[in-house]
Design a protein that fits this description.
The protein is an all-alpha fold and about 425 residues long. The protein has 18 helices and 2 strands. β1 and β2 form a beta hairpin.
Length: about 425
C-alpha cells in the first residue's frame, strides 16, 4: 500500500487543486504577493542591466532644479531643455535630492536603482491596499507586475516624476485605510506638490473627509493640505507669487499632440480647441456628480449626510474608501485633455480593483486589461489605439455605474 500512497502524494503535488487556492482565493493573496515582489526585484535588476536607458525628461529635471540650487527662485526663469518648470515645489525638493545623490544627475545607473526601489516600495503599498479589500484573485497580480513593459519603462528606463507622485498617493491611501486621516491628508498634499494629477482623487477624498470627520474637521484637514503647499512653495512664492501659481498649477496649459495617447484621431485644431477642453471639463464634473449622488453617497445615507456637522461614521469599510478614490481618478483619466505615455502609471495599479468591482465576466475583465496594455504600448499612438483606449474606458465606466452601490458596511456607527 506504500507505493500507491507515494504515487498519490506525487499526483497531488502536481495537481491544480493543490495550488488552486493560491491562484484563485483572495485569502491566500499574500503568497503570490511575496513571490511577485521577489520576482520584480530580479526583473528590475535585469532590465537596468540589459535594456538601454532612454533620455526624455531626466536631464531637464536636473537643469530645472540646478537653477534653484544656483539661486533662482522665480519660477518664470526656471527651465530645462524640454521647456519651463511646470511642477510644484515638492518636485523641486525631491529631484534636488536626487541631483545631489546622483552626482548632479550624471549617475544614471544609480538613479535607475533608486527608481527600482521606489517601484518595489510602491508595489508593497499597492499590495497592502488589495490585501485590505480582499476581493481580487491572486492570479490577477501577475498582470499588475511582470506583464507590463510600459510601467517598468516609466519607472526605471525613463525616470519620470509621475511614479514619485503616485508613491505619495498610495502611501496616503494606506493611511486612510488605517484611519490616519490627518497624516493621510499631509502625505496626499505632498503628492500634489510633486505633480497635480494627484488632485484627480480629491473629489472622493473630500466626500470621505466629510463622512468620517464632519464639516469642522474637514475644514481643518483642507487647511492642512493648503498649509503644506504654502510651506513648500514659500521660497518661490516670495520671489514671484503669480509666477509660481501660473507655472506650477497651470490648469490650462497646452499639451503636445505628438505625445497624445488618447486623442490621435482628432484633427490638430480640434485637439487644441478650447471648446473641446470645456466640453471635457463639463463631462468630467457631470459624471463625478452623478457617481457622488447615485453611487458613493448611497452607502452613508445620501448626499444630505455629507452636510452633517458631525461625522457620519468613524468606521468605513476598506471598499467604501477605495472604490470612490479609484473611480474618481479613473473618471478624470476618461475625460483628460491629453494622456501621455507616462500618465499610464496614474491609474495602472487601480485597474484590477476597478474591473473586479464590476459585474463583467472575468474573461472580459482580462480582455480589457490586455487591450489597455496594448493601447499604452503602441508607440506612436494611432487612430485605432486611441479609439480602442476610449472604448475600454467607456466600457469600464459604464460597468462601474451599473455595478451597484457600495454595500453599506456593518461597522457603520452613527455619531451622537
Amino acid at each position: 500500500m506504500a507505493a500507491p500512497s507515494r504515487r498519490g502524494k506525487i499526483r497531488d503535488f502536481f495537481s491544480f487543486k493543490t495550488y488552486k487556492r493560491y491562484i484563485c482565493d483572495p485569502n491566500y493573496s499574500w503568497v503570490v504577493m511575496i513571490s511577485l515582489l521577489v520576482a520584480e526585484a530580479l526583473v528590475n535588476v535585469v532590465i537596468i542591466n540589459k535594456i538601454k536607458y532612454t533620455e526624455i525628461d531626466w536631464q531637464a529635471y536636473m537643469q530645472e532644479v540646478e537653477g534653484v540650487i544656483n539661486g533662482t527662485f522665480n519660477y518664470l526663469e526656471l527651465r530645462g531643455d524640454t521647456g519651463p518648470l511646470v511642477y510644484p515645489a515638492g518636485f523641486v525638493y525631491v529631484f534636488m535630492g536626487l541631483y545631489h545623490i546622483t552626482d548632479k544627475g550624471t549617475d544614471i545607473r544609480l538613479a535607475q536603482y533608486i527608481f527600482a526601489a521606489l517601484y518595489i516600495v510602491t508595489l508593497i503599498l499597492v499590495f497592502n491596499i488589495y490585501h485590505r479589500v480582499n476581493k481580487i484573485p491572486p492570479y490577477v497580480y501577475f498582470f499588475m507586475c511582470c506583464a507590463s513593459y510600459r510601467i517598468h519603462s516609466i519607472y526605471i528606463l525613463r525616470l519620470f516624476n509621475d511614479p514619485v507622485a503616485m508613491f505619495f498617493l498610495y502611501l496616503a491611501v494606506n493611511l486612510f485605510l488605517y484611519d490616519k486621516w490627518t497624516w493621510g491628508c499631509l502625505v496626499f498634499s505632498l503628492g500634489v506638490s510633486v505633480k497635480m494629477n494627484v488632485l484627480l482623487f480629491s473629489p472622493a477624498l473630500l466626500m470621505l473627509l466629510l463622512v468620517t470627520q464632519g464639516i469642522p474637521r474637514t475644514v481643518l484637514h483642507l487647511g492642512l493640505c493648503a498649509t503644506v503647499q504654502l510651506l513648500l512653495g514659500f521660497p518661490f512664492i516670495i520671489a514671484n507669487p503669480l509666477g509660481y501659481l501660473i507655472r506650477s498649477f497651470d490648469l490650462g496649459r497646452q499639451f503636445i499632440f505628438t505625445w497624445t495617447v488618447n486623442w490621435r484621431f482628432l484633427p490638430l485644431d480640434i485637439f487644441h480647441s478650447r471648446s473641446l477642453h470645456a466640453t471635457l471639463l463639463g463631462l468630467h464634473l457631470a459624471v463625478l456628480v452623478g457617481f457622488l449622488v447615485y453611487k458613493w453617497s448611497r452607502s452613508i445615507g445620501g448626499v444630505k449626510a455629507l452636510l452633517s456637522w458631525q461625522p457620519v461614521t468613524k468606521n468605513l469599510d476598506a471598499n467604501n474608501i477605495i472604490l470612490p478614490l479609484f473611480t474618481a481618478n479613473f473618471i478624470g483619466m476618461c475625460f483628460s485633455r491629453s494622456l501621455h505615455y507616462q500618465f499610464y502609471v496614474w491609474y495602472f495599479h487601480t485597474l484590477p480593483y476597478l474591473l473586479w468591482s464590476t459585474e463583467l465576466p472575468v474573461k472580459y475583465r482580462l480582455l480589457l486589461l490586455g487591450v489597455l496594455e496594448l493601447c499604452w504600448n503602441t508607440y506612436p499612438s494611432t487612430v485605432y489605439s486611441s479609439g480602442a483606449l476610449h472604448v475600454c474606458h467607456v466600457v469600464l465606466l459604464i460597468a462601474l455605474w451599473y455595478s451597484g452601490t457600495i454595500p453599506r458596511t456593518t461597522q457603520v456607527q452613527k455619531m451622537k
